[in-house]
């Protein structure tokens, strides 16, 4: 038992405990202070990961692996969680009770995500995944008096439980057939005996459970309802953190355990990617609610990310990592604006965004940068991300898949720019400037700057992602 | 070595910082309400000049560093890395770039100071200086770029700042139009440039100057000669646009709608020279293809002659100078095309570029000084006259610039022009004749300008009332006049500096060349004297040779031809495209596709019932489909 491998996770969980305890001693009006503490703590942990907080190596009887990929994802989750926490501080006014728990649950979810980055065993996979999911069950329904939030929570709980059930069911099949729960053992079995009936069934069930996490078709059906109903910071966290965790697990499983049956999963994931891109982008077109729209958009991005996975090369994996990195800033930028507007327009309808440029130029600009980046327009981060996944697919000569991706990009321009059009060229429903607090302003500028920086000066980021991918695939 | 890199960043950062600072703080603001008037009027110019002065000092230091042999191998930052394409942020710091930077800085500095007087009282003066500083930044970026992609980026930035400055008085329709024209015409050239960059990258596998140079050194025989020629010519397209060579020269005269300091800085001394500079920078590529060099030389020569002829019948003082600029740029381009790589390389072109920067800036600024005298109201030389009495210093400076331009012995232009003529004499007789004739025309139109506008008696009421300009205007004129005189001498060392360690080989500008050049100069002067010295009320050529006048007045009809081209050919194509667009693309394509997409979207929405049982069912059904798909595979 080498606990030093778990330093970062232990620190994050400890921070969550600390927040829970401090909650008891904090006056009702000072609860935002807890958010500041957790953001500061997370920043410290992030900094620690650069100076000694990360020990490379494997441990716990092969259940746990700390490598470059793990580190990449852990930092990604930490950054995302910091931004979500800052966002939640701005949102705290809308939460009638349990603000302390809200922050603590976010931290627990973050701990779970960080666990997923190092998973190399099915038992560990289940534990990590459930830590994330259970935290999200509560977070989704946190606005207890709002029917929408409750409904979202219930739907997420039941469908999530269903997917977990499939997942565990799959794990039992795999264990039954191979007598092991480790990825390496599975790989050994597969290369010796091939994917026989029971193992194949088990693997597909596990993949279905992960498909639920990343919101890939046909397991995407929960996304729009839950995204719309959940509190905005939670939706953002779902879109960014939960999805990235799904991809971390997917990469770990596919390359750690399923490499011998690569041909099978490449064919499957290619088809799923294509269908997911088409579904997400087409269904987004008639949407009228911004959070629902972003839900469909999140499905389509899952499709684009799967393109990189389907390429099954180091380039493809690097593209996925870069995509996730760019996606964090871009998506959180959009949700930051939604949170800032939560007090001015309660309904999140796109129609309420009409004329936003006149009421708050900063918010309109930040939203535009985010949406344009999501659509993949240069010079934003999203452009380069899409460019990389598409070139990864083209590099594998999967032309039809690239063509589907291109169709998806074109369709997405329509609904993203529809929002931009509303913000800049439509008459506002009501006049009056919208006040944005200073920390939120600063965060908005940071996220906007990051989206542009990653797009314009992508060299070091691409090099980083590809370096990680190269070391992971070796 | 690090020292040099630091210098370079500082040279570049100066004008950029100035532009940013001016935009950010030089305005009315509650933070410094008491200083608002100062901030709105005075701060911009002061900041811009101070930062530029810093850059000039650093450029001077860089000159010393390069002299000491510190050619930079700078740390490079990876900017773009996709597949085989790798673009770094790297700089080239060598004799060529440092000298060009020095010229840009010195001339800009003179013009910045001058602009304080010229733009006095203009409400947008801060905006003007911010744009001007941004231009200098972009220009220095071109100068120091270490690879084609970076050069292209700065190339476009220069295009944008030129557009902004030509249209500075955006309230005037003519200025806005001219800005647009300059931008669009330049785009045509830039398109070729971009294709050229792609081709060069494709052939040599790199966009980095030093890599391409090394590659060509070894492999130039393996590449088909045709490919190299095409690549060189495509890159030359960029120079044709920026340096306003035939057939893309039409934008430059119109660009004179901008404020005169802009005309002097951008459209005479620096930006238009960027094309020539770029050719010198990629000279290893140009020199690798003799066929491309021929084309370049001829285009340059023809531009030189044609513009000189047109200039003979223009009446706007700035337009005459604009055509003269075209003509001199033609000389430089021709010199690049005629270069002998082993002997002096691109030296003749760059030498003329340097002296031209001084005396053409001087001429424009003198013209600007005259325009100030007329309170920005008159630019027609036939309404001027007799200025020498009222504006003696301006007239003297203008005359110095004129003599330098026409190649009067002892002034800077004489040396550089002789170098080019000598080169032409040695390499290509046809072009030598062409260049000599051009020199004759140059002398003719410049003395015409001098006789009509500056000498004699005032031709209008306004011309009788002009006053000499203030010292802030005259100071830069005098500095530039001194530079125009001394710029060509050996002890100034421009040609020697350019050739570097190899040492200068004498261009055999023998007695014949000198005699012919002098003959051309005297002929031009004599003709101008005969036609214009007797203070005719209107142009005698107009009355005596109406046909010639009409042709020249219409500038050989280039503008009309392009307009017709746009109107009929492009217009016709556009109408056709419009039909296709309206019925096929919009009707079937867009609306059809949109309808399909919308319908599909709505159909997909049907799955989204909101009903949990349905969702669970769909989840399981999806799983079954996947199982079926994988097992059946």
Assembly context of the chains: heterodimer
**Average residue pLDDT of chain B:** 81
Main sheet specs of chain B? 2 strands, antiparallel
Q: How far is it from the N-terminal to the C-terminal residue of chain A, by CA?
A: 26 Å
Strand order of the largest sheet of chain B: 1-2
| Percent of sequence in beta strands of chain A | under 5%
Write the layout of secondary structure elements.
The complex is a heterodimer of chains A (474) and B (633).
Chain A: H1 7-25, H2 32-50, E1 57-59, E2 64-66, H3 68-91, H4 99-116, H5 122-140, H6 147-178, H7 183-193, H8 197-214, H9 223-229, H10 232-256, H11 262-284, H12 290-311, H13 314-341, H14 356-359, H15 361-375, H16 381-395, H17 399-425, H18 438-456, H19 459-473
Antiparallel strand pairs in A: 1-2
Helix pairs in contact in A: 1-2, 1-4, 2-3, 2-4, 3-4, 3-10, 3-13, 4-5, 4-10, 5-6, 5-10, 6-8, 6-9, 8-10, 9-10, 9-12, 10-12, 10-13, 11-12, 11-17, 12-13, 12-16, 12-17, 13-15, 13-16, 13-18, 13-19, 15-17, 15-18, 16-17, 16-18
Chain B: H1 2-25, H2 36-67, E1 77-82, E2 85-89, H3 95-118, H4 125-144, H5 148-166, H6 173-204, H7 209-219, H8 225-242, H9 251-254, H10 260-269, H11 271-281, H12 283-286, H13 290-311, H14 317-338, H15 347-373, H16 387-390, H17 392-406, H18 412-427, H19 429-454, H20 461-464, H21 471-486, H22 494-499, H23 511-532, H24 540-544, H25 546-553, H26 558-607, H27 612-632
Antiparallel strand pairs in B: 1-2
Helix pairs in contact in B: 1-2, 1-4, 2-3, 2-4, 3-4, 3-10, 3-15, 3-21, 4-5, 5-6, 6-8, 8-11, 8-13, 10-15, 11-14, 11-15, 13-14, 13-19, 14-15, 14-18, 14-19, 15-17, 15-18, 15-21, 17-19, 17-21, 18-19, 19-23
Describe, in plain words, how this protein is organized in 3D.
- The complex is a heterodimer of chains A (474) and B (633).
- Chain A has 474 residues and is mainly alpha-helical.
- The relative contact order of chain A is 0.09.
- The model of chain A has no long low-confidence stretch (mean pLDDT 91).
- Chain A contains 19 helices and 2 strands.
- Chain B is built from 27 helices and 2 strands.
- In chain B, helix 11 runs antiparallel to helix 15 (347-373).
- The mean pLDDT of chain B is 81.
- Chain A binds chain B through residues 154-155, 158-159, 162-163, 166, 200-201, 204-205, 208, 212, 217-219, 221-222, 224-225, 264, 267-268, 271-272, 279, 282-286, 387, 391, 411, 414, 457-460, 462-463, and chain B through 77-83, 594, 597-598, 600-602, 604-605, 607-608, 610, 612, 615-616, 618-619, 621-623, 625-627, 629-631, 633.
